[in-house]
């Protein structure tokens, strides 16, 4: 009867020979800087905001004594609830516009554009991010105002002028322009990993381009679609500059309402903190959905 040789010492992990306490200290030492950073700049400020949200009508200098959920109930008032719903509509509309505009662009760059031009094309979409978002928004004001570039061009071809500045349509245009590069970059990273053999097999089996797109391309790119949509939704939900400069008084959003509670003429830090916690909760739910369904879709691939 043959006896199997003992396992080689080199097959064991070096960390397995260390005592448990030593390994725990090593892991703690590696995670401590990032954990301390998150604790000071994320966890503690969030707890402070939550504490302030439980104090009604608190102002700078008042004593913080949590007493109830009056501020959260105030957020459900028709006027404030309308602001929340308007912010959700603008965020969803921006996400859909960026997805509808960004997917064809990312698909063309990833699958159809020459290989030598892809990096240059991606750089072209990243270039606007190198300038200040405030300058980009002022540029859209110059384009969309009644005597701006857009209406001047429409007048040349005989089309009536458009009055969209200081309206929700202008906010959608500005936010879509600001966040479109993020959508394109994320979709490109997902589409460039498509299995070309599946696309060729689908065509060989007689599938139409539309059938191939919905049954082959979209399922493989679904994690990228989810990630890009989530990023654009979260960023546009908390955007302040575009609604403030392009939307006017008719486009009040949650971010502008929170600003008014902290830096307006009649500050109310408690109500502003409650609105901030509602915004944080909405973002957390969106991230949880991505972690659940995004990972499952990637696993099914």
Q: What is the C-level CATH assignment?
A: Mainly Alpha
CATH architecture: Orthogonal Bundle
Q: Strand-residue fraction?
A: under 5%
Give the helix/strand class.
mainly alpha
Shape: globular
CATH topology: MetI-like fold
Distance between the termini: 46 Å
Give the ordered list of helices and strands.
HHHHHHHHHHHH
Number of helices: 12
**Largest sheet, if any?**
none
Structural summary, described in words:
The chain has 301 residues and is mainly α. It has one domain: Orthogonal Bundle (MetI-like fold), CATH 1.10.3720. It is 72% helix and 0% strand. The chain has helices at residues 20-53, 70-75, 78-112, 115-126, 133-144, 149-156, 168-191, 196-204, 209-237, 241-247, 254-263, 269-300. Helix 3 (78-112) packs across helix 9 (209-237) and helix 5 (133-144) runs parallel beside helix 10.
Topology:
Elements: H1 20-53, H2 70-75, H3 78-112, H4 115-126, H5 133-144, H6 149-156, H7 168-191, H8 196-204, H9 209-237, H10 241-247, H11 254-263, H12 269-300
Structure summarized in a few sentences:
With 301 residues, this protein is mostly helical. It has one domain: MetI-like (MetI-like fold). The chain is 72% helix and 0% strand.
Question: Could you list some keywords that capture this structure?
Answer:
301 residues; MetI-like fold; disordered C terminus
């Amino acid at each position: 009867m043959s006896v199997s040789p003992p396992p080689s010492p080199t097959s064991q992990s070096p960390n397995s020979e260390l005592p448990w306490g030593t390994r725990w200290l090593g892991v703690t030492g590696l995670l401590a800087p990032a954990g301390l950073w998150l604790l000071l700049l994320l966890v503690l400020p969030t707890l402070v905001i939550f504490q302030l949200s439980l104090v009604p009508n608190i102002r700078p200098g008042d004593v913080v004594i949590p007493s109830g959920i009056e501020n959260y109930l105030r957020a459900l008032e028709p006027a404030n609830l309308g602001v929340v719903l308007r912010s959700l509509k603008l965020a969803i509309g921006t996400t859909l516009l960026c997805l509808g505009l960004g997917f064809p662009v990312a698909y063309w760059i990833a699958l159809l554009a020459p290989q030598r031009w892809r990096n240059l094309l991606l750089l072209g979409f990243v270039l606007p991010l190198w300038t200040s978002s405030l300058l980009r928004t002022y540029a859209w004001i110059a384009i969309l105002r009644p005597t701006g570039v857009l209406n001047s061009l429409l007048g040349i071809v005989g089309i009536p002028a458009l009055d969209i500045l200081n309206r929700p349509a202008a906010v959608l245009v500005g936010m879509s322009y600001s966040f479109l590069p993020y959508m394109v970059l994320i979709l490109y990273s997902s589409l460039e990993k498509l299995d070309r053999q599946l696309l060729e097999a689908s065509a060989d089996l007689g599938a139409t381009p539309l059938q191939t797109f919905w049954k082959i391309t979209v399922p493989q790119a679904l994690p990228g679609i989810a990630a890009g949509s989530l990023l654009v939704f979260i960023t546009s939900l908390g955007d302040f500059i575009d609604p403030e400069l392009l939307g006017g008084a008719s486009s009040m959003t949650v971010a502008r309402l929170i600003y008014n509670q902290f830096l307006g003429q009649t500050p109310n830090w408690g109500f502003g903190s409650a609105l901030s916690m509602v915004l944080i909760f909405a973002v957390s739910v969106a991230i949880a959905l991505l972690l659940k369904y995004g990972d499952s879709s990637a696993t099914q691939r």
